[in-house]
Every structure is written in structure tokens, then in C-alpha cells.
């Protein structure tokens, strides 16, 4: 595992490659390769290569990069591992090739020299590499079929730049970093940005399973050499849909999975296993132990989870004992979380709503001295472990009966979304509109927000352009439309979308943050080819069948455990911070704390303002702090995560308008529900100095009447002089009047945001998405109208 950087000035008018830029790009990725550095520049100054090395195979200087062939006409920089490099090397030696190292990198170099851009047939591994070919004056790039290893590039029309990280290209200082609407819209749709998009117009990801060749003069050729759905389609085409016996299935599964597990152990350093209490990592541990005696396993423990269903440690120790592994449990504390928070966000190369778990289990592995660890990632995609395998086909099947009225889907959605918001996710208002095809139903099942919700989160013009460029439904259809089986359709979507753009990417950056190479035996092309006939059969294997694969069966306790995602107690840590802050109310301490909050959240603040920039600018007030300005402000905003995000521009406007005021937030909470509280999201941003909340029922009413008096007393006690009213725009007139009376009784004299209070204009049938006024903008307009 390494970090690579390349610059090719292919046009005659382009300046020569800057050594400083290559080094800056390369060294931004220091964590990817702490064991060595290398660089090379062509004599004519048109090409530069940089490399950071994490030594895994051939630890000697002979394995250093950039690596050259005998006559120096080829140079390679490589990130990843080739698991079958020994077999490939043997065949190359039989054909007369000679080697000077024991590395897999030299095998790739020889494959290119003998086969050219057809070199990747038969290569088994995870990889992203660049080869400079001086004979042809061209740069050749390749990325593995699943996209396990990242590769990004930028082309300004004169110079072509390549790196393993988006942020490394930005660090070079010469790429276009203007906002790409497609990347921003995609993040709010999915919680991650799918390839080839990034947040920047000037940076793209090389798609998985593709090569790219750029020649002198700028001619660019992109070729797909492996498309994952084609493997499933080929198996489906050959399948007789016969029923496969249990013994035959078990033997095929065991042979293929054990083969993959063994190949993924190839290394000149110790390899461990991330062991949770789940079936996937337990199966990997069992299969590895069949061929290796000294298996090292690592489990992540949190004291906050002890005795709960989220505690992985006890069952993991049962598994480790069952397979006689060298096991360690590493405990991560809130102090670790706080100490690493800044590093966590720095390491996150592209925005993600996930990755915390992988980040900390990688930290745990590094503490044990490991450089390589196997993960159970990919098991759910192959063996139908997600609810999407059940929910999406069921929805498509049911919606077939509603075909005649499917055209009314947008109208029904517009009428029902606000009603549904009170009971469940408003995106389910789109069932009729999005439930009739696999791509659309998958979007409905997997997305964070649906397209019609995006204008309340982002600028409508940005949403319109981003949604058009993403062409999301066509992208999803590209992965599943060639398949007939519902099971294969969902496997293809999960493998090529959620796993590729979220899980694998998070595994890469989170592991590399600690110089840990994460390997994924379930994510292997040879394994997929071996299992595809089973997946295409009438009785495809599921997670229960996976449990029967090892020769020594998984412990009964593991099999009895219901499926739970691997989680990290982030909320508990945040709440602990809240309790700690609530205990210290002295003004001087609060002032110091606010300053620290501002410093810690600076990067997040800039990102937030970037997302909402145009909308926020509509009502950005000037700073004023003269005589008569409010000293103690209460902001009232209720709702769930989406409601809080929508109101962020208005909240920032309040802080800018009154920079010296004490500002508190009053919001609601739902006892017994695992909703993200507004305080969880906003603590540390520097907007608010204090957080108040009150419990409500499912219908939005305070749970017990006595709580109303308690809340009133708490608000009165704080002597707020001004209320900023940011209630959701679907607030009814009688609710607004009730709020006015309540806050008047609480002693508040000044009200901002009640004047100009208008409900959100409902969508009309056929009304363009971008013309619906986003609530984020309406909140800002209300503030401006109220002074």
C-alpha cells in the first residue's frame, strides 16, 4: 500500500513539471507510505513521478519506487498488492523475462512490457498504478475491477496530474478547485460521492476496472477491462437455474472462499484479521486458521457498550478461542476520540457519513504492531445480508399493480410528503413515483434524501445542474439492467455502488490514516467468478450458508446473534462532552471553551458555508454590536436531522448579526428514539453557547403537561431578551400563536422571524423542481423581513 503522484506536461505550451508540486502532492500522502520516498523527473522536464512506500512485499531497497525496466524506458509507481504475483512471475520467467527484485511491482512492469494495455488479464489483487512509457511518450493508468484502490486525475488541457488522494492533488496547488454541483448533490443523496465525480470540477476519479492512456499532445483513451455485472450476467446466461445440492454448494463455497483468504495473506510482514462478533469476519478467521497456525486477530472495544448488544468483545473472544488465534482486544476511549477528531477529518479524503468504525479499528490494529489486516467487508453484498435484498424486489413487485396510476406519483408525493414527515421519513412519499424500477427503488431505499428534498438543503440552481449531470437513475440502471434475477440485480447494485463508493473508499482512507493496509477477501474477482454460478442458481447462498463453510463451524453464539452493524459510541461521547460542558458554567471557562470550539470546527464551518453559500448570501447581515443590540438570544427550531441542516444558513446569519451575544438553541427531542439531536450536530460549531431541549410525543406535543411549566421556568430563568423564531414553515397559525404566548410568558420582549412567516409553497403537478422555494431560503427571508 502506497501513495502515488504523477505529472505529465503533454502539450508543448505547458510549463515543465514543477519539482516542488510533485513533492508537495507526494508528501501530503505521508501516512500512506511512511517507510520510504522516491521521485523521478525526465531529462526533458515533461514528466515527474513521486511515491510514498508502505513496505509489505519485498522490504529491501530493490522494492523501492519509482521502479524501472532494464533500459529505463518504463517507470512505474504502484499502490496496492498483487496476490498472485508469484504465479505470474513464474510464467514470465518461463518466457525469458529476468527479475532483479522479489516485488509484485516488478511483475506489473514486466506484464506491461510484454502485453501492453492488455496486461491485466489474470491479475488478482487490488491496485492503482501509473506507468510512464518513454518509447511511446504516454502515461498509462489502471485501477482494479472493484475500485478497492483509489486513483484521481486532473487535466487542465495542457498538463495531466495523478494522485492517490483528492486532497493531495489540491495540495499541489495547480488544480481547478471550483465546486462541482454533481459532487455536492451526490453527497446529500448518498452520504458519499460516486465516481467519477468529486467535490471539485477539476478532479475526477478513474472508474473501477478501467485503464486510461494519455499521449503526448493530449490524446486520451479510456478502456474498460472488467465490468463486475458482466461476470454475474455470464453466470446467469450459462445457468440452467438448476437446484444445487447442499453438499455441492458447501464444497464450492469452501474451496473458493478459502482460496481467496489464503491469497490475501501473501505478504512479507505479519497479517491480522479485524474480528467482530459477526459472521463475515468470523468466517474469514476460521478459513485463515485452516492453513495458518499463528493467526492474529484484533477486536475493538468500547466501555460504553459493555453488556449491551453492541459489545463485540465477548463474542469475538469466543471466536478467537474457538480457532486458537493470537487475539487482542484494544479499548478505545472518549479521550482517544477527542484526541483524534482533527486527524480523523483531515484523513477523510472525500466527504463521507461513515468511516468512524474503520478509522478506530485501524488505530487498534496499528497499536498491536500490524501493517496489514483482513476485513469481512463484502460478505453482505455476496450473501444477501442487507435489507435491500428483501425490500427493493418486494417494492418493485408490489408497484407493478399500480402501473396505471404511476404517472400521478409526483402529485401524490407532493401532497403526502409533509404528512409523512410527522410519522416517518418523507422520502417514502415517493414510493409510487420511484418504486416501479430497480434503479429508482434502490435510490429510494439507500438515499439519505430524495431529489425533491435537495432544494431545501442546497441552492436550487446547484441542485438542478448537479442532478442533471449525475444522471443517477441511468448510472444505477447501467449496473443492473442486464440481469434478470432480483438477487443478482441487488448484488450488482450493492457491489458497484454502496460498497464501492462508501465502504471501500472509507476502508482505504481510514486504514491509510494509520498506515494500515486493509485487505478484503470477499471482494475478489476470482472469488466472484467462482461463486457467480451459485448466486445465479435457484437457491443462491445466504449468510446462513456462509456460516457452514469453515471445516470447524462457527460458534453457536455467533450464529444466534442477530445481525447488527459495527458501531462506535460517538453519540455517547458527544453527550459526555455535553454533560461536562453543562457542569462548567462560569463565564471565563465558557469563553475559553467557545474559543476552542471555534478553532476545532473551522474546517467544518467553511465546508458548511460552502454548501449553502448562495442561499446564505441572500440574507447575510452586516455585523453590528452597538447600543441596543440583543445580549441574550433564544433561537427556536424543532425537527429532526434534516430540519436542523436546512436551518443552518439562518443560524449562521444570527451569529454573524450578533457576534457578541449569548445565543441558546431550544429544540425538541423524542424519548426512546435514536434520532440525532440538534445539539449533537451543532455542538462545537461556535454558533450556540447553550442548548435547551424538551421531550415531545410522536405527534409533536409535550409528553406531560407538567413539563410545559418546567420548560417555561427554565426559559424565564435565563432572562432572554430576544427570540429568533425558526420554526419549520409548515407550522400552523394556531401553533404560531401558542408559541407567541409561551415566549411572551417567558418574559421575552423582542421577536425576530415571526413577521413575514409564510408556509412553504406546495409543489404543483408538473412544477419544475428548481422553482420550489427551499425552506432554507424562506427562513433567511423571514429573518430579513423581521429585521
- Give a count of the beta strands, DSSP E runs of length 2 or more: 22
Kindly report the spatial arrangement of strands forming the biggest sheet: 2-3-1-9-8-10
Q: Kindly give the count of domains.
A: 3
Report the sheet-strand fraction.
5-15%
Give the low-pLDDT segments. Answer: 578-627, 758-773
The number of distinct helices, counting runs of at least 4 residues, comes to 32
Content-based structural category: alpha/beta
Please tell me what the overall shape is: globular
Overall pLDDT: 85
Major sheet: size, sense and barrel closure?
A: 6 strands, antiparallel
Terminal residue distance: 57 Å
Subunit organisation of the chains? single chain
Q: What is the C-alpha radius of gyration, as a whole number of Å? A: 28 Å
The portion of residues assigned to helices is: 40-55%
Describe this structure in words.
By secondary structure, this protein is α/β, with parallel strands linked by helices. It folds into 3 domains: 2-226, Aminohydrolase, N-terminal nucleophile (Ntn) domain (Glutamine Phosphoribosylpyrophosphate, subunit 1, domain 1); 228-268 and 334-542, no CATH class; 570-786, Glycogen Phosphorylase B (Rossmann fold, 3-Layer(aba) Sandwich). It is 43% helix and 15% strand. The chain contains 32 helices and 22 strands. The strands form 4 sheets. A 6-stranded antiparallel beta sheet has the order 2-3-1-9-8-10, with helices on one face. The radius of gyration is 28 Å and the shape is globular.
Amino acid at each position: 500500500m502506497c501513495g502515488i503522484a504523477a505529472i505529465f506536461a503533454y502539450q508543448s505550451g505547458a510549463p515543465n513539471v514543477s519539482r516542488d508540486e510533485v513533492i508537495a502532492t507526494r508528501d501530503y500522502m505521508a501516512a500512506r507510505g511512511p517507510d520510504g520516498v522516491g521521485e523521478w523527473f525526465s531529462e526533458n522536464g515533461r514528466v515527474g513521478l513521486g511515491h510514498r512506500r508502505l513496505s509489505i512485499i519485498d522490504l529491501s531497497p530493490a522494492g523501492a519506487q519509482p521502479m524501472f525496466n532494464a533500459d529505463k524506458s518504463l517507470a512505474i509507481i504502484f499502490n496496492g498488492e498483487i496476490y498472485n504475483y508469484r504465479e505470474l512471475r513464474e510464467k514470465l520467467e518461463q518466457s525469458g523475462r529476468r527479475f532483479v527484485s522479489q516485488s509484485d511491482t516488478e511483475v506489473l512492469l514486466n506484464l506491461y512490457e510484454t502485453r501492453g494495455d492488455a496486461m491485466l488479464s489474470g491479475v488478482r489483487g487490488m491496485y492503482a498504478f501509473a506507468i510512464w512509457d518513454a518509447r511511446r511518450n504516454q502515461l498509462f493508468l489502471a485501477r482494479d475491477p472493484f475500485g478497492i484502490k483509489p486513483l484521481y486525475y486532473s487535466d487542465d488541457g495542457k498538463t495531466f496530474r495523478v494522485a492517490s488522494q483528492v486532497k493531495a492533488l489540491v495540495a499541489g496547488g495547480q488544480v481547478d478547485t471550483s465546486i462541482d454541483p454533481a459532487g455536492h448533490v451526490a453527497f446529500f443523496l448518498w452520504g458519499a460521492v460516486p465516481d467519477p465525480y468529486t467535490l471539485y470540477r477539476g478532479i475526477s476519479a478513474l472508474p473501477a476496472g478501467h485503464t486510461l492512456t494519455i499521449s503526448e499532445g493530449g490524446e486520451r483513451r479510456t478502456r474498460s477491462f472488467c465490468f463486475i455485472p458482466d461476470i454475474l450476467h455470464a453466470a446467469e446466461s450459462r445457468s440452467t437455474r438448476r437446484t444445487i445440492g447442499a453438499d455441492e454448494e458447501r464444497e464450492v463455497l469452501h474451496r473458493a472462499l478459502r482460496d481467496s483468504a489464503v491469497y490475501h495473506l501473501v505478504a512479507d510482514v505479519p497479517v491480522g484479521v479485524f474480528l467482530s462478533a459477526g459472521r463475515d469476519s468470523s468466517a474469514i478467521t476460521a478459513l485463515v486458521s485452516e492453513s495458518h497456525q499463528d493467526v492474529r486477530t484484533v477486536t475493538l472495544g468500547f466501555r460504553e457498550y459493555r453488556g449491551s448488544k453492541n459489545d463485540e468483545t465477548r463474542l469475538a473472544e469466543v471466536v478467537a478461542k474457538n480457532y486458537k488465534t493470537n487475539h487482542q482486544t484494544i479499548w478505545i476511549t472518549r479521550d482517544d476520540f477527542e484526541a483524534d477528531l482533527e486527524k480523523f477529518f483531515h484523513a477523510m479524503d472525500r466527504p463521507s457519513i461513515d468511516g468512524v468504525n474503520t478509522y478506530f479499528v485501524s488505530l487498534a490494529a496499528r497499536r498491536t504492531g500490524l501493517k496489514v489486516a483482513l476485513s469481512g467487508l463484502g460478505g453482505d453484498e455476496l450473501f444477501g445480508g442487507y435489507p435491500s435484498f428483501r425490500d427493493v424486489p418486494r417494492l418493485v413487485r408490489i408497484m407493478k399493480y399500480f402501473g396505471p396510476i404511476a404517472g400521478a406519483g409526483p402529485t401524490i408525493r407532493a401532497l403526502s410528503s409533509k404528512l409523512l414527515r410527522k410519522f416517518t421519513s418523507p422520502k417514502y412519499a415517493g414510493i409510487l413515483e420511484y418504486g416501479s424500477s430497480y434503479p429508482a427503488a434502490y435510490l429510494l431505499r439507500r438515499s439519505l434524501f430524495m431529489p425533491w428534498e435537495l432544494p431545501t438543503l442546497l441552492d436550487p440552481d446547484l441542485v438542478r445542474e448537479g442532478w442533471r449531470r449525475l444522471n443517477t437513475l441511468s448510472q444505477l440502471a447501467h449496473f443492473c439492467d442486464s440481469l434478470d434475477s432480483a438477487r443478482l440485480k441487488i448484488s450488482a447494485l450493492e457491489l458497484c455502488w454502496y460498497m464501492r463508493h462508501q465502504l471501500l473508499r472509507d476502508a482505504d482512507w481510514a486504514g491509510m490514516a494509520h498506515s494500515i493496509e486493509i485487505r478484503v477477501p470477499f471482494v475478489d474477482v476470482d472469488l466472484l467468478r467462482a461463486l457467480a454460478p451459485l448466486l445465479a442458481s435457484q437457491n443462491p447462498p445466504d449468510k446462513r450458508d456462509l456460516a457452514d463453510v469453515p471445516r470447524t463451524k462457527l460458534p453457536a453464539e455467533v450464529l444466534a446473534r442477530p445481525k447488527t452493524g459495527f458501531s462506535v459510541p460517538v453519540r455517547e461521547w458527544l453527550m459526555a462532552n455535553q454533560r461536562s460542558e453543562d457542569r462548567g458554567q462560569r463565564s471565563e471557562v465558557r469563553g475559553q471553551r467557545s474559543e476552542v470550539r471555534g478553532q476545532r470546527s473551522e474546517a467544518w464551518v467553511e465546508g458548511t458555508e460552502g454548501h449553502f453559500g448562495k442561499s446564505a448570501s441572500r440574507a447575510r447581515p452586516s455585523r453590528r454590536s452597538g447600543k441596543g443590540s440583543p445580549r441574550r438570544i433564544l433561537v427556536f427550531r424543532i425537527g429532526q436531522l434534516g430540519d436542523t441542516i436546512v436551518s443552518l444558513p439562518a443560524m449562521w446569519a444570527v451569529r454573524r448579526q450578533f457576534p457578541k451575544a449569548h445565543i441558546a438553541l431550544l429544540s425538541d427531542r423524542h424519548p426512546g428514539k435514536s434520532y440525532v439531536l440538534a445539539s449533537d450536530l451543532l455542538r462545537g460549531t461556535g454558533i450556540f453557547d447553550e442548548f435547551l431541549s424538551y421531550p415531545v410525543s410522536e405527534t409533536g406535543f409535550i409528553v406531560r403537561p407538567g413539563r410545559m411549566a418546567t420548560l417555561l421556568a427554565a426559559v424565564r430563568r435565563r432572562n432572554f431578551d430576544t427570540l429568533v423564531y425558526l420554526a419549520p414553515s409548515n407550522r400552523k397559525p394556531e401553533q404560531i400563536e401558542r408559541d407567541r404566548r409561551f415566549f411572551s410568558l417567558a418574559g421575552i420582549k423582542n421577536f425576530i422571524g415571526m413577521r413575514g412567516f409564510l408556509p412553504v409553497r406546495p409543489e404543483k403537478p408538473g412544477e419544475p423542481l428548481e422553482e420550489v422555494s427551499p425552506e432554507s431560503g424562506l427562513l433567511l427571508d423571514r429573518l430579513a423581513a423581521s429585521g
